[in-house]
């Protein structure tokens, strides 16, 4: 019995050693598993954060590229507008300079023709009279009393004659001015005080298109050039641009009869081939557009 108890004690000790070894192995395995889990969690979190940052970087890079393309296009448009304005300014300034120079020359000629003797005297004779001492430096002023009296009478008579012509010219000028004023009053319309303010409706076209692969939209405003100068067209565009995004639109199915008629006239006058005209007519028939809702 003592031997059996000793054997059992030995088995218990071995079992205790095995349990301790197993517990040590379990603790080591749990620590290794925990370290593996933490490592994978850290790696996954890092990968997730990196993926999100990469996505944001790609989106922002796409936005920057689209804005850059838009700025480049707007820069080209502004340069084209500036060059066009410079050409218009040079052409208009040269035309008006030529016009005003011609008017100045014509008016100068007309003013001179109003009293040619007085003008000739002021332009030509005054210089001779002012420089008579230089022209007559070697002439001795010798004359008799009789000839001096006769010359004075001749000069006075000439002055009276010239004065009578000046008075006649002034009379004719005033008469012509009065007749021209009466004629102008009959021809010209009444003053603006007799008119009332009126409202005129001007049709415009708002066109929206995509100009790149990022679905960026560009809005163009087309204004009729009939009876509208460039300043009025620019003012209409500047008024419409800020409110385009806030407009309420509605789909239209029927095209106005006048528009169809005008399109048919333009299509019939075109020199394009019949195939091009047929395709153009099909596109016009299949088109759809929107109009602003009545508020």
Q: Can you describe this structure?
A:
- The protein has 295 residues and is mostly helical.
- It is built from 7 helices and 4 strands.
- It folds into 4 domains: 1-85; 86-131 and 150-188, no CATH class; 203-241, no CATH class; 248-295, no CATH class.
- The strands form 2 sheets. It has a two-stranded antiparallel ribbon with strand order 1-2. It has a two-stranded antiparallel ribbon with strand order 3-4.
- A hairpin with a 6-residue loop joins strand 1 (204-210) and strand 2.
Topology:
Layout: H1 2-114, H2 116-130, H3 132-135, H4 145-187, E1 204-210, E2 217-223, H5 230-240, E3 249-252, H6 257-269, H7 274-286, E4 289-292
Antiparallel strand pairs: 1-2, 3-4
Summarize the structure.
The protein has about 300 residues and is mainly alpha-helical. It has helices spanning about 1-115, 115-130, 130-135, 145-185, 230-240, 255-270, 275-285; strands at about 205-210, 215-225, 250, 290.
């Amino acid at each position: 019995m003592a031997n059996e108890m000793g054997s059992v004690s030995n088995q218990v000790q071995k079992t205790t050693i095995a349990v301790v070894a197993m517990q040590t192995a379990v603790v080591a395995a749990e620590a290794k598993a925990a370290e593996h889990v933490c490592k994978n969690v850290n790696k996954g979190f890092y990968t997730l954060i990196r993926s999100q940052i990469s996505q944001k970087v790609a989106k922002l890079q796409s936005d920057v590229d689209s804005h850059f393309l838009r700025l480049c296009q707007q820069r080209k448009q502004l340069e084209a507008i500036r060059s066009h304005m410079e050409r218009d300014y040079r052409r208009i300034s040269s035309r008006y300079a030529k016009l005003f120079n011609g008017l100045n020359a014509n008016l100068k000629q007309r003013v001179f023709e109003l009293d040619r003797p007085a003008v000739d005297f002021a332009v030509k004779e005054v210089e001779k009279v002012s420089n008579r001492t230089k022209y007559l430096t070697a002439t001795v002023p010798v004359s008799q009393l009789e000839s001096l009296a006769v010359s004075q009478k001749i000069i006075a008579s000439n002055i009276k004659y010239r004065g009578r012509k000046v008075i006649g010219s002034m009379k004719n000028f005033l008469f012509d001015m009065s007749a021209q004023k009466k004629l102008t009053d009959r021809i010209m319309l009444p003053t603006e005080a007799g008119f009332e303010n009126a409202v005129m409706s001007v049709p415009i076209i708002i066109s929206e298109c995509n100009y790149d692969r990022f679905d960026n939209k560009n809005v163009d405003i087309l204004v009729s050039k009939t009876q509208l100068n460039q300043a009025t067209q620019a003012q209409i565009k500047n008024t419409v641009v800020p409110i385009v995004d806030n407009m309420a639109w509605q789909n239209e199915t029927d095209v106005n009869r006048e528009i169809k008629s005008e399109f048919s006239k333009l299509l019939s006058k075109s020199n394009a081939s019949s195939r091009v005209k047929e395709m153009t007519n099909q596109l016009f028939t299949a088109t759809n557009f929107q109009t602003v809702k009545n508020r």
